[in-house]
Amino acid sequence: MNTATDITEYEEIAATIQHYVDGAISGEGERMKPAFHAEATIYGYVEDSLFAGPIQNLYDWNDENGPASNLQTRIVHIDVVGTVASVRVESDNWTGHRFTDFFNLLKVDGEWKIMNKVFHLHSH
Question: Which of 30, 38, 78, 110 has the fewest C-beta atoms lying within 10 Å of its C-beta?
Answer without folding.
Answer: 110
